[in-house]
Amino acid sequence: MPQAVRRTFVLGTVPVALVALLGAAAPPSVGSPGAGDPYFPLAGNGGYHVGHYDLTLRYDTDSRHLDGKAVLYARATQKLSRFDLDLNGLKVTGLTVGRDKADFRRDGQELVVTPRRTLHKGQWFRVTVTYNGKPAPVTDPDGSLDGWIPTDDGAFVAGEPQGAMTWFPANNHPKDKSSYDFTITVPKGRTAVANGVFLGQATAHGRTTFRWRQSEPMAAYLATATVGKFTVERYTTRDGIQVYNAVDPREADAAVPVLKKLPSVLAWESKLFGPYPFKAAGSIVDRAPNVGYALETQTRPVYDRAPGLSTLVHESAHQWFGDSVTLTSWKDIWLNEGFATYAEWLYAEQHGGDSAQKSFDALYARPASDGLWEFPPGDPGSGANIFGTPVYARGAMALHQLRKAVGDRVFFRILRAWAGEHRDGHGTTAQLVRLAERESGKDLDGLFRTWVYQQGKPDAP
Length: 461
Ligand code: ARG
Ligand code: ZN
Hints:
Elements: H1 3-22, E1 48-60, E2 65-76, E3 83-86, E4 91-97, E5 100-101, E6 103-107, E7 110-114, E8 124-133, E9 138-139, E10 145-151, E11 154-158, E12 177-187, E13 191-193, E14 197-204, E15 207-219, E16 226-228, E17 231-236, E18 242-247, H2 252-259, H3 262-273, E19 280-285, E20 302-303, H4 309-320, E21 325-326, H5 334-350, H6 356-364, H7 389-406, H8 408-421, E22 425-426, H9 429-440, H10 445-453
Parallel strand pairs: 1-12, 18-19, 19-20, 21-22
Antiparallel strand pairs: 1-2, 2-8, 3-7, 4-5, 4-8, 6-7, 9-10, 10-11, 12-15, 13-16, 14-15, 17-18
Helix pairs in contact: 3-4, 4-5, 5-7, 6-7, 7-8, 7-10, 8-9
This protein binds arginine and zinc ion.
């Protein structure tokens, strides 16, 4: 093809298609308002990666007022004349990029920032946002509350999938993982618990400041800053993991015997999945009647009531599957929930309970009309379904089928390879299939297609 004709093609057709794809004709130096997630199109943002968040918060538990300062250390992945952060509600009182004041405007959950000088690709830059107000949770497509959820003595703070933006300006998609520092000031007598290692606390003028450091990369949805009246317990396990448990005294009787098992659960999971991925661990048990779920907040899951042992096993397993190895699209949520549910089955199997086969059989016995078969775990269809039964139960069934196909030795090698090779990173379903095929030497496309992606109840295995 003559050069001129080809150039016409390139300059003519491709940009038109691209512009059509992007909707509006924004200049190429503008960071996109979302990370491209099909279920949560505005979650996260394009054009930069946040390496570190430094969050300084002050929460008044009586007035429920939050004062915040967020410093983000970020790197431009493209030329950036403008970029977005995610922030829902709250009032922004100041915003600088580097030392310069930046222009900003609010547009729904988008905080649109125009730095004084265009950032060049690869440039590291610092964004400082001061903000305040009464944080309120968002309601997820499944109807549950998500984010900063006030309680009678503080706040239950959990952000899956989108609630992080209710309490700090974030690149709010799990594709972007960052380290975090937290400095949280609350009235004396209350405790503020975040992720990672406890660095210390100090009380002055009727307020106590708690400092926390999450040094391994973390997705924004796994951040917490839960505040309440807690009884605190600290110790280091034999493996050197720093444990910090914060328990609502009203839940203590039921919670304490279960939390006692945390070191043995983590040790058992480490044997199965490989070394525990973080320096710190622990639990936050915070009575929160309007929540209705627990969340695997990184290093330190948060429970809305005293958990049962299987819930402790589940949230602990997420530290490997979900927290350390993180999804890149909410559609892949079965990689979190299927694995954590299968960990519960394995725990039962190895501790005198039902075998995984029995758990599988009991589910498989459900009629084709049952909600279990409503959609496949690998394709829930929308954000309203990401925490549905098929994601958890059929996700675990898929792993059980994988185990049966490759045998125990190879199956557990696959789990360890998955956790080890993607540690502190990300993983997709396609990568899991490739890894499982590599480890087993078997063609597993059909198995994953049937158990992860096929609509309706699969034929008997
Ligand atoms: N990942 C949590 C679990 O392991 C569930 C979180 C549910 N969140 C929600 N917004 N519905 O059980
Ligand atoms: Zn889970």
